[in-house]
Write a sequence for this structure.
């Protein structure tokens, strides 16, 4: 029987097959793995979802909170309703509701833990935005991975439209495991398409070399763009952990200032965005990845410029068959004798 090791000594999922499995009898063998999952990247959670294991989950009760009449406990003689209720209230008041859900309910997250609720995400029709892109200012944020292995992070490019109401609308982008040459090609493709006012490139650690590389590519491709940064520094230098940065962006989401496109719901970028938003808690990201969320929190570093809020003129045909142009005040600005 394999019991879960301490958190500090978690062994990789492959150890079960390369060491433990091969040490057993070739015919008379059985592996039993017990424990509680920490997050979606946890080896135990990965094993349970792989389909290769006969999985059994035994939470303390079917659901909680609930009334005593609806309480269905796994061990009611040992853990009656009164105990579960007391434990739930105590941990909730202590700000440790995640411990209740993880250790007793075997959930990696719950509605109480989530930083972002589903109804706080605004969805919009991208096609309507694309009809007149000149009404918006565009920005690009990135989170590049330098390797493309099946278990590695995603490379993410997010293209944002910034409105006169200071809303961020995700318009385009990629979420792929790929090497830097493809990342650079995709970045220049989006720059050519959307003409962003600035592009966010992280320069922490070894990523600082990306700036010189991009400048060289600008000369080679004859495509130029501004690099977001603070003061004279080109590039975004992040401080603190990813979850700390994302927590600063959460108020933007709760104010419904971040919009996602309906037409892209099935694309990897939006699928991964929804996954990460669904599994982010105060303790960290319970999802396998946090790369799309990182491009969201980078928006706080972009120093954006809102486009003009000027209303579009109205065209009204008069009796002479010409068109008069009117502004917000309904005052006649000028007449144009050309019939469109």
């Amino acid at each position: 029987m394999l019991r879960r090791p301490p958190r500090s000594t978690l062994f990789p999922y492959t150890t079960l097959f390369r060491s433990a499995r091969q040490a057993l009898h070739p015919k008379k063998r059985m592996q039993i793995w017990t424990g509680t999952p920490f997050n979606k990247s946890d080896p135990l959670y990965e094993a349970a979802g792989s389909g290769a294991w006969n999985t059994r989950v035994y939470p303390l009760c079917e659901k909680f909170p609930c009334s005593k009449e609806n309480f269905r406990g796994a061990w009611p003689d040992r853990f009656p309703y009164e105990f579960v209720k007391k434990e739930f209230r105590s941990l909730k008041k202590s700000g440790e509701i995640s411990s209740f859900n993880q250790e007793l309910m075997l959930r990696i997250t719950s509605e109480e833990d989530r930083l972002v609720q589903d109804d706080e995400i605004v969805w919009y029709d991208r096609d309507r935005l694309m009809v007149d892109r000149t009404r918006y200012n565009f920005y690009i944020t990135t989170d590049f991975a330098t390797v493309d292995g099946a278990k590695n992070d995603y490379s993410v490019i997010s293209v944002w439209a910034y409105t006169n109401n200071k809303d961020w609308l995700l318009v385009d982008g990629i979420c792929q495991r790929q090497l830097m040459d493809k990342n650079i090609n995709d970045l220049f493709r989006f720059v050519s398409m959307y003409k962003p006012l600035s592009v966010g490139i992280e320069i922490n650690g070894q990523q600082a070399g990306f700036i010189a590389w991009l400048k060289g590519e600008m000369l080679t491709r004859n495509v130029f763009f501004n690099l977001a940064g603070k003061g004279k520094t080109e590039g975004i230098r992040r401080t603190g952990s990813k979850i700390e940065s994302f927590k600063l962006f959460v108020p933007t989401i709760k104010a419904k200032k971040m919009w996602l496109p309906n037409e892209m719901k099935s694309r990897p970028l939006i699928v991964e965005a929804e996954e990460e938003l669904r599994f982010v808690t105060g303790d960290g990201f319970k999802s396998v990845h946090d790369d799309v969320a990182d491009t969201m929190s980078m928006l706080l570093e972009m120093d954006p410029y809102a486009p003009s809020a000027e209303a579009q003129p109205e065209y009204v045909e008069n009796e002479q068959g010409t068109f008069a142009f009117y502004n917000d005040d309904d005052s006649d600005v000028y007449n144009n004798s050309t019939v469109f």
User: Anything to note?
Assistant: The longest strand covers residues 168-176.
